[in-house]
Amino acid sequence: MSSVSEWYMGKNVLITGATGFMGKVLVEKLLRSCPGVKALYLLVRPKAGQSMQERVHDMLKCKLFDRVREDNPDFHQKIIPISSELMQSGLALSPADVEKLSSCINIVFHCAATVRFDEPLKHALQLNVIATQQILALAQRMQHLYAFIHISTAYANCNRRHIDEVIYPPPVEPKKLIDSLEWMDDAIVRDITPRLIGDRPNTYTYTKALAEYVVQQESGRLNIGIIRPSIVGASWQEPFPGWIDNFNGPSGVFIAAGKGILRTMRASNDAVADLIPVDMVINLTLAAGWYTAVHRPKSALVYNCTTGGINPFHWGEIEHHVMSTFKRNPLEQAFRRPNANITSNYLINQYWILVSHKFPALIYDLFLRLSGQKPQMMRIFTRLHKAIALLEYFSSQDWEWNSDNMNMLMNQLSAEDRRTFNFDVHQLNWPEYIENYCIGTKKYVLNEDMSDIPAARQHLRKLRNIRYTFNTLLLVFIWRVFIARSQMARNIWYFVVSLCFKFLSYFRASSTLTN
Ligand SMILES: CCCCCCCCCCCCCCCCCCCC(=O)SCCNC(=O)CCNC(=O)[C@H](O)C(C)(C)COP(=O)(O)OP(=O)(O)OC[C@H]1O[C@@H](n2cnc3c(N)ncnc32)[C@H](O)[C@@H]1OP(=O)(O)O
Ligand SMILES: NC(=O)C1=CN([C@@H]2O[C@H](COP(=O)(O)OP(=O)(O)OC[C@H]3O[C@@H](n4cnc5c(N)ncnc54)[C@H](OP(=O)(O)O)[C@@H]3O)[C@@H](O)[C@H]2O)C=CC1
Fold first, then answer.
1. Domain count, the chain
2. Which of 123, 321, 348, 391 to mutate for ligand 1's pocket (most ligand atoms within 8 Å of CB)?
3. How many Å lie between the centroid of ligand 1 and the Cα of residue 253?
4. Do 493 and 414 belong together in one domain?
5. Does residue 134 form part of some domain?
6. Is the pTM of this model over 0.90?
7. Which DSSP letter does residue 107 get?
8. Using one digit for the tens of pLDDT, what is the confidence trace for 49-64?
């Protein structure tokens, strides 16, 4: 057995954010590759009318856990859900749960966060910063804790071009901000948010930067590791290629482009697209947990978990591979044929928004109205434009991350560990990864069946024919209007038609001669 999985043997692990995208992959990998792990305590809140037990039960039924289920059908016995609402004081934990966790937990993975870019500052602060403080306080009470791993983001310091594996001074002292926002009503906070976040694009990156500082300041005697993934995408290999379950980051963009809805977006062709597969992030996270526990570094070690400096790939190349994949493997019921382009030019983008988004949406809504249905396309585009506007900051520029600690960690692993907990981004074959990613969005986000691809292709052919017919009718209509109004247009028209006739008779005559 590898030394990493050996270390997890008999350990009790606490995970926050286990119902989220990365949390689920963390739970799955721990159960599958560290079969000796004693128990996983998951802090989960009841949500949408479901109790936390029901939520965990549903989560474990999902396809992601198929491989674990095959290896050990009773794997759910290792999962212990604990009711906790991280936004509440004391994390809303019962005294008995606090007692239990304090006495048994050996390692904490703190993944929970709000990743929304439009989150009101108070909410983002409460979850990303104050809840982190509370988890740290709980961790301080744990008697057998070896390591505390905090999941941050590579974009916490996106106001810098070059980002080292250090915790930078915070934009504001978190305690002062928490105290000031406490008495302000939501409207005032909304008004001052742009001034506070300054040169960061949103409350998410701002509060994640504050959280890193809080982790550093309040770590006390804890052994800390901070993981900073860049843009986390579908899985590369594990538990199977292309697994993804949400619309965040590029996934929503890929889907919107695959459905033929998104035709243009502002992004720089030559900027590095710092995507990293979720399984690689989780492998690094588990290895960092082991390293932190065994080597007990004196100060918090930060791992920039990125690809751009090692195996760069660019947004222009991504666009090409996304389009090519969706043309070969179309999504069902596409709005139009997939044909999206990125441009860094604001005016060109606005032009294509008008021609390729708003105009077709208007026509389609008109058609819906005339056929007695509710118009919806304009509304969809308004939401899409809002979402895209929030992402463009990240797709229009480059960052440079130092990844020495990631390399150091890799060198610390045995050959077997490097295979089991592989985060060697040199091995990523981007075209293959992007293809699996797009197919993953089709299969696991949209729940579409691969056997329906012939029907989806047929639908695309129908859309193409509609477009040809529409364009021809439009051309004839414009020309008719033109001819009716202008003598000059009529003259040109007669000239072109007579020229065509002359050419035709010339070719006919010459072909008769040669025969
Ligand atoms: C031109 C094509 C070629 C492709 C090449 C170019 C690609 C460029 C891509 C650039 C991507 C850059 C991404 C950068 C990200 C960097 C991030 C740093 C990494 C991180 O640390 S955090 C993770 C990233 N976080 C996010 O991505 C969150 C962003 N999302 C939001 O902030 C909100 O969702 C948003 C966008 C404000 C929308 O809010 P709202 O309108 O309130 O909608 P909901 O979120 O509540 O969703 C409602 C409903 O709709 C579904 N949904 C969401 N987005 C989409 C979508 N794009 N398409 C379709 N459906 C979508 C969502 O799942 C909800 O469904 P329910 O069933 O749950 O109600
Ligand atoms: N996805 C990405 O591209 C990147 C993510 N990260 C970081 O990785 C971590 C995980 O992100 P990801 O998995 O994508 O995020 P998700 O949004 O998928 O998951 C967030 C998790 O946090 C939990 N959570 C949110 N609010 C509360 C609350 N009030 N009480 C209890 N639990 C709560 C959610 O639980 P519930 O199901 O109940 O809502 C969910 O389990 C975050 O720290 C994020 O900053 C970093 C870089 C990139």
1. 2
2. 391
3. 8
4. no
5. yes
6. yes
7. E
8. 999 999 999 999 999 9
